[in-house]
Design brief:
InterPro entries: BRO_N_domain (IPR003497). By secondary structure, this protein is α+β, with helices and mostly antiparallel strands. The protein contains 13 helices and five strands. It is globular.
């Protein structure tokens, strides 16, 4: 099951994932948030050179975990709350103390979410709402997240394990659905590290869901047992959505694939502006 979530610290996104029933945070995101470095990976290398004790214990602090990205699942160095506290000691930043308080709060929220999983969904909804997205968009986005999780669960059952395999299958669905891969789509929208689907409009989200849901349905029916077979199923599922997209484009007289993103302003304000 896909467990990567996004937490916000002073407007900066920090990815986190559940491991051993606690939150583990992507180290490079934490360093970037605290230092505003444009090369956080380089900062980490310098930090380890400066702090010999940190470098010696790095193997116990940093654990590569599977993190969902727009291009698929990737292995990234993560640390739990204790590990992040140790890393913070090596970062001279005025944000350090506020970050420690934020980290403690996030850890407490995880305990609440274990007891009541609905809280995690409610927080995600609230996060999108605070960003200015409309209720209708949020509903589609949340449903899309659930459909994506169902698909990745299905892929796991069919023997898909490696990060690269997830990336390839995701790209095949996207190519068949929209005519572009996720990386090409992000480039079209002018995105870098941002989540592609957070910058899709209603129709783009709908066709993303359709391609992934049909792929799941076909896989459940046919039970592909090799990567090649999974790839063929992904193409077929995406093609169903692709054909529907093409028919939709004929009816509405425009492309579903959009260059629009929600970087400068939240989605609801953009709509207000474009309608004015």
């Amino acid at each position: 099951m896909e467990t990567t979530k996004i937490a916000l610290f002073k407007g900066r996104k920090i990815r986190k994932t559940i491991y051993n029933n606690e939150w583990w945070f992507v180290i490079i995101d934490v360093v970037e948030a605290l230092t505003d470095s444009i090369q956080p990976d380089g900062y980490i290398k310098d930090m380890r050179r400066r702090d010999e004790e940190l470098s010696k214990g790095w193997g116990q602090i940093a654990t590569p975990l599977s993190i969902s990205t727009a291009g698929g699942v990737q292995r990234m160095n993560c640390a739990n709350t204790e590990g992040i506290f140790r890393i913070i000691q090596s970062i001279p930043s005025p944000k350090a103390e506020p970050f420690k308080r934020w980290l403690a709060k996030v850890g407490y929220e995880r305990v609440q979410e274990i007891e009541n999983p609905e809280l995690a969904t409610k927080r995600t909804r609230m996060l999108y709402k605070l960003k200015g997205y409309s209720e209708g968009w949020i509903e589609k986005r949340m449903r899309g997240i659930a459909i994506r999780e169902e698909l990745t669960d299905e892929w796991q059952k069919r023997g898909v394990k490696e990060q690269r395999e997830y990336e390839i299958l995701t790209a095949e669905i996207s190519q068949a659905t929209f005519g572009v891969t996720p990386s090409e789509y992000k480039k079209l929208k002018g995105l870098k590290r941002q989540n592609l689907r957070d910058h899709m409009d209603d129709l783009e989200l709908i066709f993303s869901m359709l391609g992934e849901r049909v792929t799941t349905e076909i896989s459940q029916q046919e039970r592909p047992d090799t990567f090649v077979k999974n790839k063929k199923v992904a193409i077929r599922g995406g093609s169903v959505a692709g054909n529907a997209r093409k028919q939709t484009e004929k009816e509405i007289g425009r492309s579903v694939v959009s260059r629009k993103n929600y970087l400068p302003a939240p989605e609801s304000r953009k709509r207000i502006k474009s309608a004015g």
